[in-house]
Amino acid sequence: MLGRRRWLMQTACGFGGLASGAMLARAAQANNQPHFAPKAKRIIFLFMQGGVSHVDSFDYKPMLAKRDGEMLPFEDDRVLAKTGQRNSTHRVMRSPWAFKQYGQTGRWVSDLFPHMAQHVDQMCMVHSMHTEGVAHGPSTLFLHCGSTNFVRPSFGSWVSYGLGSENEDLPAFVSIAPSVGNGGPRNYGSAFLPAKYQGTAIGTASTVASNLQIENLAAEGGPWGGSRDAQRRQLDFIQSLNREQLARRARSGGAESHELEAVLESYELGWRMQTAAPEVFDLQRESALTRTAYGLDNPTTRGFGEKCLLARRLCESGVRFVQVNYGDNSANPAWDQHSNLPKHADHAKAVDQPIGALMADLKARGLLEDTLVWWGGEFGRTPYSQSNGTGRDHNPSGFTVWLAGGGVAAGRSVGKTDEFGHSAIENKIHMHDLHATLLHMMGIDHERLTYEYAGRHFRLTDVHGRVVNDLIA
For a Cys-Cys bond, which of 22, 70, 398, 443 suits 424, CB 3.0-4.6 Å? Predict the structure, then answer.
């Protein structure tokens, strides 16, 4: 039985531990300094799950219309993976959408994205991406974690580990409406990094946008009820017991307890968020003009519009890495049009106006200067029809992403694919290279951001990756 004197001793130590823990947390945050002067303070990643067709959006290939319907040999990644054969014959398929030139740079953009097209002069188009994995699961994991099959920390977790948070009252890393498939929680997980660096998921891909909130978070009254003072006393008592458990493990020479430490920190963060988060998540505080600009008054654009607006508010409040997911929980997600390419138009209508509004909003508020916006999917799509049908297959050999904002070489086009848009052929940029470059823009040397685990030092880019200076202003 725990005597009164011993209980007082332990809880007193517990309260002291809370105070020292808070001070240590602030000190640790202060030590999360970049390796060199950063060009961007935060990242918004607009993840287009399923693989947008680059040859129908940002990589204009007139040859598709010229050779439309012809049967030509291509190196099919799926056939190569299954049979080892290098070439197979496919029917070239033209784009259903017309392309136009926009901005002072004269960049070609299809009719799918007229709102994004208004901002091409702020974008750096990367037309020579290539990656690992042919299927969604491996490629999505590689995009997020730098590995197709091993459990590795996600990009956002590495950023959180390297730089910490700008606001101790909010998470450093948030993933809005992530899918439960194709990697699921691993795409925002911390793997072997301490658990406190994992992302905070806001809903899932099936969550109605209006219900995107942090679960079990309440303001006055809280999850335990009672006044704020009463809640604080309850939390202090629980935390004192938790810290005593940590101390016992340490005294007995037990293993590190990253998970328990993360629980303790999450309780404290949850307490602070009760005050900070409700205001950030309240989109009603925005003007009618802003809400209309993001498409919140249109059922087609409202869902993704609310996510983009929330992303801006989170970044404005000091969240370091915000991922905005457009997708669903099906086996063939969102942009995955194998047999019905015109379906791309429905997805484009849902995301184009909100993303255009986000770009304009960030620029108007001065946030685009130090916010890095990254748009793209796990791979592109083939320039030929799949099985001579009406859709396109997966294509990891060449595709497009675009970057904008802090540190980006605005208005530049980097790399290119062949005349059909099938394979990257000039200034090829691997996903490891993109990761290295994004970290560089955040002031992080990808070779120095390491964590020792299982007897070796790991990093996001493993033993690969180069900084692509052509992408940087």
Answer: 398
What is the CA angle 447-134-422, rounded to 5? 95
Residue 17 placed within a domain: no
pLDDT tens digits, one per residue of 208-231: 766 777 766 665 555 556 666 776
Give the C-alpha separation, 437 to 464, whole Å: 12
Total number of domains constituting the chain = 1
In a domain, 21, yes or no: no
Can you give the three-state secondary structure of 145-173, one letter per residue?
Answer: HCCCCCCCCCHHHHHHHHHCCCCCCCCCE
The token pair at 378 is: 């796990």
Q: Treating both helix axes as pointing N-terminal to C-terminal, what angle do 258-281 and 228-251 enclose, rounded to 10 degrees? A: 160
Rounded to the nearest 10 degrees, the angle between the axes of helix 155-163 and helix 431-441 is: 30
Cα(425)–Cα(419) distance, integer angstroms: 10
Domain that holds residue 79: 32-471
Residue 25 in any domain: the answer is no
Q: How far is it, in rounded angstroms, from Cα 465 to Cα 449?
A: 13
In a domain, 5, yes or no: no
Which among 146, 123, 152, 147 is positioned nearest to 46, based on CA atoms?
A: 123
CATH number of the domain to which 54 belongs: 3.40.720.10
Threshold 0.90, pTM exceeds: no
Please list the residues that pair with 109 across neighbouring strands: 100
